[in-house]
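Narrative summary of target 7.
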Amino acid sequence: MKLGIALLLAAMLALLGWLAAGPFMTVNAIREAIQKQDSAALSEHVDFPALRSNLRAQAEDLIARRAGSAQDNPITAIVLGVANSAAGSAIDALATPAGIGAVLEGRGLWHRITGGGIGGDSYSHASPPDLLRDAKYRFESPSRFTATINDADGDPVVFVLHRHGLNWKLDDIRMPWGDAAAATD
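Modeled conformation, tokenized:
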């Protein structure tokens, strides 16, 4: 009886340890995929449909806030529709494994064009910086974990991971766009 309780307790502690370490392992796997510029490995840890949806909602909200009360004008409504469509198309193209791969390859191509490679060799470019190196990590709930970094302007960018069973996936990036729109109102 005591052995059964001890085994059950040990199994529960192991499961809790796995759940607690899961988001850190996912962040590390994302970091490694970015460093290796491996979009296939990156796609294993990112829920691209949810990421696309969340980024699109943020972009549409920003556009609507910037338009403000001018939305009552029929011409402005048409312009807003075109802007939302363009923003959505850009987000749809970038928030895919192929889009991420193209962005990573574009960075390498940009280094080759500008001669910005290592030691003047335009074909050997520096690896992308470790964006999550100085991140502040936090559990918001047992199934939500965030990693917050500051962008070049010092504004917070929050990477949100959700638990899917025993695995964790990145499914939202909270951009500081909304804060910028609120500051301009």
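Residues 62 and 180 are 9 Å apart (CA to CA).
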